[in-house]
Amino acid sequence: MSNKETRDPNEIRDSDIVFVCPFCSKSLAIDCRGAGLTISCPDCSNKIEIPIPEGMEVSDIDSSDADKAVRLIHMREVISDSQQRILDLEQDIKDVMTRRDALEAIRTENALRFEVIEREVANIQRSLLRITEVLGSIQDAETSTQGRK
Ligand SMILES: [Zn+2]
């Protein structure tokens, strides 16, 4: 078996992962080094993930190539977990940003409300000042009337 390139694609080796495409049910045999990878089904072209054989152990395989493959599989599992955690964190960030936007909107709304209240307070103060002026002039008029008496 010197020419790997021309090997029969239908030939299944011990190290191959044999599984069924979940879309077209085509039986597939993929080299174990592909475990955990996403590929396009050669039959239906749907994206499928090559399953990682359960309980795959270094002792199950003789060659160091397979040894490397197992380590690669574990690495892929770790990467897959990390990717899931990244997705979870991204969702958390989105949630926090949504909450922040909501708070920002409330803050803006409150700021606008305060502006309105401030304007109203200023109006009341002006009115009070005007009333004080009017009262003062009435008092002055009374005083001058009394003085004339
Ligand atoms: Zn398929």
Summed up, what is this model?
The chain is mainly α and 149 residues long. It has one helix and four strands. The protein has one domain (14-142).
Q: Which helices and strands occur, and which strands form pairs?
A:
Elements: E1 16-20, E2 27-31, E3 38-40, E4 47-49, H1 64-148
Antiparallel strand pairs: 1-2, 3-4
The structure holds zinc ion.
Zinc ion is lined by residues 21, 23-24, 26, 41, 43-44, 46.
Q: What does the model show?
A:
- The structure is a single chain.
- The chain is mainly α.
- The protein has one domain (14-142).
- It is 57% helix and 11% strand.
- It has one helix at residues 64-148, and strands at residues 16-20, 27-31, 38-40, 47-49.
- It has a two-stranded antiparallel ribbon with strand order 1-2. The chain has a two-stranded antiparallel sheet with strand order 3-4.
- The longest helix is centred in the last third of the chain and has 85 residues, at 64-148.
- The N and C termini lie far apart (135 Å).
- Residues 21, 23-24, 26, 41, 43-44, 46 line the site of zinc ion.
Structural class: mainly alpha
Parts with pLDDT < 50 across at least 5 consecutive residues = 1-5
N- and C-termini, Cα separation? 135 Å
Estimate nothing, just give the exact number of structural domains: 1
- Shape call: rod-shaped
Strand content: 5-15%
Q: Mean pLDDT across all residues, rounded? A: 83
Helix amount:
55-70%
Number of strands: 4
Instruction: Profile the largest sheet.
Output: 2 strands, antiparallel
The Cα radius of gyration reads: 40 Å
| Ligands, ions, cofactors | zinc ion
| Number of helical stretches of at least 4 residues | 1
**Element-level helix/strand string:** EEEEH
Q: Largest sheet, order of strands side by side? A: 1-2
